[in-house]
Amino acid sequence: MLLPQPMAHGRLVQRYKRFFADVLLDTGEALTAHCPNPGAMLGLNTPGLGAWLSRSDNPKRKLAWTLELVEADGGLVGVNTLTPNRLVAEALLANLFPELAGYALHRREVKFGAASRVDFVLTHPDRPDCYVEVKNCHLRRGGTLAEFPDCVAARSSRHLRELAAEVARGNRAVQLFVIQRTDCDRFAACADLDPTYAAGLRVAAAAGVEVLCYGCDISPEVVRIARRLPWRDAPGPE
Known about the structure:
By secondary structure, this protein is α+β, with helices and mostly antiparallel strands. Helix 2 packs parallel to helix 3 (195-206). The strands form three sheets. Strands 3-2-1-4-5-6 form a six-stranded antiparallel β-sheet, with no helix packed on it. The chain has a six-stranded mixed β-sheet with strand order 7-8-9-12-14-15. It is globular. The chain is built from three helices and 15 strands. The chain starts with 7 loop residues before the first strand and ends in a 9-residue tail after the last strand. The chain has helices at residues 83-93, 154-168, 195-206; strands at residues 8-16, 20-25, 30-34, 50-55, 65-72, 75-78, 105-112, 116-124, 127-137, 139-140, 145-148, 172-179, 186-189, 210-218, 223-229.
């Protein structure tokens, strides 16, 4: 997926109120950017970290700039939580997920459950529907382990239950984690920050929800789905 070009580089001054980030550009210009990330951004909101921003010419936007990437731990990390869905949409069309190939139609933002929308429903006349929920993952606290979530994620726990309900109805359901960093080689649910979600992921997997984890290649120009990573806590051998 091509990132909006040209990108501007600077240093993070502060991230606050979840959706705002003050950045000092390399040119000396100080600005406030939209931070499209509702999570805690642990390890990615430290003042002084390098930051890459895109600029929109849409006159209706209150903030023209968007925080896209942060430089952390020697590499680039994607912090825009809208990026994974765009990545997955492109990857599905290009058949980059062998586990999800062969469906005739990819529908986005489909109502399901009591009051939710699933990111994708894949359909084919000769197959059960496949419900795919995408989660952005960018937390790494040590080693090469990627973790989700980085704070309590009650809405994400509800999505797991709704995916399991689709399996019970005879459909296929997939929880897809897109890991927007290049320095991880496995994934785990973050049990200490959200034990409910970690337990819920194992329960959902036991109920038939498939757990897929994919890492990315990232540059200031392009983010792309790159490789499947193992889920550390998968039932049975990885």
